[in-house]
Design goal:
single chain; eight-stranded antiparallel sheet; 3 helices
Length: 137
């Protein structure tokens, strides 16, 4: 998991995918804010009234995909997890980064802010050195 955390730090953006009410897939580019101590959970800030939140409330199974590089130096990571929506400022505080004020000018006190937490169950990865699968409980 330590090696995976180092890879995710370099990948900054992930693409969580939700299932819409009509059964379509909707992907959302989101920053993981380069959180270093990855423990199997990813955190993304959004709006509580967003389509992504509505999708998660209806179906919490969410894959998140990230990639970096090309040619002979690449990393692809896909985690499959269960998403939850948190609206408590206390829950958000640990994952807040000042650069998020671009979208949420009042910080974690911004009206309508929400944080999505994706708890990984399976993580697949591919690098130039090989591939693997991690199961997270």
């Amino acid at each position: 998991m330590k090696d995976l955390a180092a890879q995710l730090k370099e990948l900054d953006y992930g693409m969580p995918t939700t299932t819409t009410s009509r059964g379509h897939l909707a992907s959302h580019p989101m920053s993981n804010n380069r959180e270093v101590d990855y423990d199997g959970s990813s955190h993304y800030f959004t709006w509580a009234d967003s389509r992504m939140v509505r999708d998660i409330e209806a179906n919490a199974k969410v894959p998140v995909e990230s990639q970096r590089g090309s040619g002979g130096d690449f990393t692809f990571i896909q985690l499959q997890g269960i998403a939850s929506v948190l609206i408590s400022p206390a829950a958000m505080e640990e994952h807040w980064h000042p650069e998020l004020e671009r979208w949420f000018p009042e910080g974690i006190q911004t009206d309508g802010i929400a944080m999505i937490r994706v708890d990984a169950r399976r993580i697949a990865y591919w690098t130039a050195e090989g591939d693997g699968l991690i199961t997270v409980n």
